[in-house]
Every structure is written in structure tokens, then in C-alpha cells.
């Protein structure tokens, strides 16, 4: 079995009405995912997560909780079977925009989606679990509003 180590971020943006999560839609797939990717040699999980978010979404983010949420999945539909471990960091946006993303060939679109709608759109159970666990962390760790905006 092949082992894959990956990292990404659950990027939350609070508004007066709701909390939104940053999702990416990969070309060829109908369901959105959290921004993430495989770790490069010598790269830490945090370095990978920050790089992948910027490449896939065009946003720069700040991690608000240093301990990642770790989820695992086994992809065993077709050989080679893959055991994938993903470390998701809770983060908030600092700046940027989807127009600045580098992964245009891979990522069809990027969007901020209300948490309830995101859970209904997402199809990967391990990513829904990562989102759920990061939301619990966000309640215990104050996630500041984006720069220049006041918290409600």
C-alpha cells in the first residue's frame, strides 16, 4: 500500500450573519473540497498547507491554531491502494483573491460557502469530519475577523 502525506487548511471567514469556509472545485469533479495537497520532500505540514492554499485559491492565510486536525482515508477502489493522511490547520484569510491562484489548470473555481451548505456539497467524509473538528476548535480559539473589519 502506498502512503501519502498531505496538508491543507480549513479557512474560515466570519461575517455578521454566518461563518463561511473556503472551498475549491477541481476540474473533472462535481463536489468541492478543502484546499490541500501532497507534501514535498523536506517540507513541513504547515509549510505545505500554506503553500497549497495559496496555489489553489490565490489567498494568503494565517494559521490560528498550531495543532492540526489529522484525518486518514484509504483509497482502495483501484490499485495501487493508497493510505492518505492529511493534516488540516485552522486558518483565516489575510488577503488575495481567486484571480491570483496558480493552479488554474487543476482548480476550476474557488468560493466562500456557508458551513451548512458546504457540508451538503462536500462528499468526502474525512474532509467533512476535518471541517467539523476545526469548527469546534474555532469556538475555543478566537478566529479574528479579516484585517480591517470589526468582529460582531
In the CATH hierarchy, what is the class? Alpha Beta
- Structural class of the secondary elements? alpha+beta
The largest sheet, given as strand count, sense and whether it forms a barrel, is:
7 strands, mixed
General form: globular
Extended strand count = 7
Helical fraction:
10-25%
H/E series: EEEHEEEEHH
The CATH topology is given as Nucleoside Triphosphate Pyrophosphohydrolase
Contiguous low-pLDDT stretches (5 residues minimum) are: none
Please give the domain count. 1
Strand content: 35-45%
- Count of DSSP H/I helices: 3
- The CATH architecture designation is Alpha-Beta Complex
Radius of gyration: 15 Å
Distance between the ends: 48 Å
Mean pLDDT across residues: 90
Under CATH, the homologous superfamily reads: Nucleoside Triphosphate Pyrophosphohydrolase
How would you portray this structure in words?
With 152 residues, this protein is an alpha+beta fold. It has one domain: Alpha-Beta Complex (Nucleoside Triphosphate Pyrophosphohydrolase), CATH 3.90.79.10. The protein has three helices and seven strands. Strands 1, 2, 3, 4, 5, 6 and 7 form a seven-stranded mixed beta sheet that branches. β5 and β6 form a beta hairpin. The longest helix has 16 residues. It is globular. The termini are far apart.
Amino acid at each position: 500500500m502506498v502512503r501519502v502525506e498531505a496538508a491543507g487548511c480549513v479557512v474560515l471567514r466570519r461575517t455578521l450573519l454566518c461563518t463561511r469556509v473556503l472551498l475549491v472545485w477541481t476540474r473533472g469533479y462535481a463536489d468541492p473540497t478543502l484546499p490541500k495537497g501532497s507534501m514535498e520532500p523536506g517540507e513541513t505540514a504547515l509549510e505545505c498547507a500554506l503553500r497549497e492554499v495559496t496555489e489553489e485559491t490565490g489567498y494568503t492565510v494565517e494559521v490560528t491554531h498550531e495543532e492540526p486536525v489529522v484525518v486518514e482515508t484509504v483509497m482502495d477502489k483501484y490499485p495501487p491502494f493508497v493510505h492518505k493522511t492529511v493534516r488540516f490547520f485552522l486558518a483565516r484569510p489575510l488577503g488575495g483573491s481567486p484571480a491570483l491562484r496558480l493552479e488554474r489548470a487543476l482548480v476550476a473555481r474557488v468560493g466562500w460557502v456557508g458551513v451548512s451548505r458546504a457540508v451538503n456539497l462536500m462528499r468526502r467524509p474525512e474532509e467533512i469530519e476535518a471541517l467539523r473538528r476545526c469548527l469546534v476548535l474555532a469556538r475555543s480559539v478566537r478566529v479574528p475577523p479579516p484585517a480591517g473589519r470589526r468582529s460582531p
